[in-house]
Amino acid sequence: VSPCFLLFMVVVSFATFNPPNYGSYMFPPWANMLGWCLAMSSMAMVPLYAIYKLCTLPGRFCNRLAYAITPETEHHLIENGEVRQFTLQHWLVV
In 39-70, which positions are buried (b, 16+ CB within 10 angstroms) versus exposed (e)? Predict the structure, then answer.
């Protein structure tokens, strides 16, 4: 949920962006770019860490994905081949 919400917020921010001003003074474009770079540097850590985690876990891609989205207390289930995360019923339970 968090990465999807983060992506939504970034898209909305880009879509509704108005360059800031101080009275009649308009800030230079490089200042706007610096602000966006600072904001994106913190937001980029979520997908970058997800990619890092998927690349460094052992096994096939499906097993790595299941291992990455499963709480540590349930990792033994993945090792035994019980991957509930790939069933529709798992995602429909609230």
Answer: eeeeeeeeeeeeeeeeeeeeeeeeebbbbeeb
Residue 94's pLDDT is: 65
Q: Which helix H or strand E contains 26, and what residues bound it? A: strand 25-26
On whether the CB atoms of residues 67 and 80 are closer than 8 A, the answer is no
- Tokens representing residue 38 in the block: 């600072």
Output phi, psi for 16, to 5 deg.
Answer: -105, 15
- Summarised one tens digit per residue, pLDDT across range 50-68 is 899 889 988 888 888 888 8
pTM over 0.90: no
Q: Give every CB contact of residue 32 below 8 A, 6+ residues apart in sequence.
A: 19, 20
